[in-house]
Write a structure and sequence with these properties.
- The protein is mainly α and 223 residues long.
- It folds into two domains: 70 residues, Winged helix-like DNA-binding domain superfamily/Winged helix DNA-binding domain (Arc Repressor Mutant, subunit A, Orthogonal Bundle), CATH 1.10.10; 146 residues, Four Helix Bundle (Hemerythrin (Met), subunit A), CATH 1.20.120.
- The chain is 75% helix and 5% strand.
- A three-stranded antiparallel sheet has the order 1-3-2.
- A hairpin with a 3-residue loop joins β2 and β3.
- The radius of gyration is 19 Å and the shape is globular.
C-alpha cells in the first residue's frame, strides 16, 4: 500500500510546492529546510525527499548540505533562457493553434480577456489592482498560453513548457508589480493574438506572439 501511494504523495508535494511559489509563500533565492517544507505543504518527509530530485532536475531548486534547499534565483541568465525557450516554443505552437483551435474556444478566450480589461478599467483610477483581480488576470493570461501549447497534443512539449512556465511566473513575481495599466497592456496584446487567430492568419499570430513575449521580457527588465 505504501509503494502504491508514494507516487501520489510525491505529485501532491510537487503541486503544493509550485502553488506556494505562485502565492509567494516561497521566494526566489530562499533557503528552506526539508522539515520546513513538510510544515508548509502538510505532507510527510518521505514525499518531500522524493520531490527534491525532480525539482533539482527541473532547475527549480538546488540542494545544499545539511538538508537545505535553495529556491532558484532570478538573475539575468534565468530571464534570458526562460524567455528564449518560451519564444521558441510558442512561435511554432501559435501557428498550429491558429489553424486548429475551435471557434468556440477562441471566442471564450476573447470574452474572458475583454472581461479582465473591463474590470481593470473600473479599478484604474486608484492605480491599485485588487488581489482577486490579480488572480483572475493571471488565470486568463496563463490560460491562453496553455491552450496554445496544449493544442499540439504532445506530452513532451507540454511538460517541458509547464516547467518553463513555472520559471516565468517566478521571474514575474519577483520582477514585476501589477497595476491596472500593465494588466490592460498585457490583455490588449492578448486581444491582438486572439484576433489574428480569429482571422486564421498564422503569420499575423506569430508576429503578435513575438511582440507579446518580447514586451513581457522588457516589463520584467523594467523597460
Amino acid at each position: 500500500m505504501r509503494e502504491k501511494n508514494a507516487p501520489k504523495l510525491s505529485q501532491k508535494a510537487y503541486e503544493s510546492f509550485t502553488y506556494h511559489l505562485s502565492v509567494r509563500a516561497l521566494r526566489a533565492g530562499q533557503l528552506i529546510s526539508q522539515r520546513e517544507l513538510v510544515s508548509l505543504t502538510g505532507l510527510p518527509l518521505g514525499a518531500i525527499r522524493e520531490l527534491i530530485p525532480r525539482l533539482e532536475a527541473e532547475g527549480l531548486i538546488h540542494t545544499i548540505p545539511q538538508r537545505w534547499i535553495c529556491i532558484a534565483e532570478v538573475d539575468s541568465k534565468l530571464v534570458k533562457h526562460a524567455f528564449e525557450f518560451r519564444l521558441f516554443m510558442e512561435i511554432q505552437a501559435v501557428k498550429y493553434f491558429t489553424k486548429h483551435a475551435s471557434d468556440n474556444l477562441v471566442g471564450k478566450l476573447l470574452n474572458e480577456t475583454k472581461g479582465i480589461i473591463t474590470l481593470c478599467e473600473l479599478e484604474g483610477s486608484s492605480n491599485i489592482i485588487s488581489s482577486s483581480l490579480i488572480v483572475d488576470a493571471q488565470t486568463v493570461d496563463w490560460k491562453l498560453h496553455e491552450h496554445i501549447i496544449k493544442t499540439l497534443n504532445n506530452k513532451i512539449i507540454i511538460d517541458a513548457y509547464r516547467v518553463n512556465a513555472i520559471k516565468i511566473r517566478l521571474i514575474k513575481l519577483e520582477q514585476t508589480s501589477l497595476t491596472p495599466a500593465n494588466v490592460i497592456s498585457t490583455m490588449n496584446e492578448h486581444l491582438d493574438i486572439i484576433h489574428a487567430v480569429q482571422l486564421r492568419d498564422p503569420s499575423a499570430a506569430e508576429r503578435e506572439i513575438v511582440k507579446h513575449i518580447e514586451n513581457a521580457r522588457l516589463r520584467v527588465l523594467g523597460n
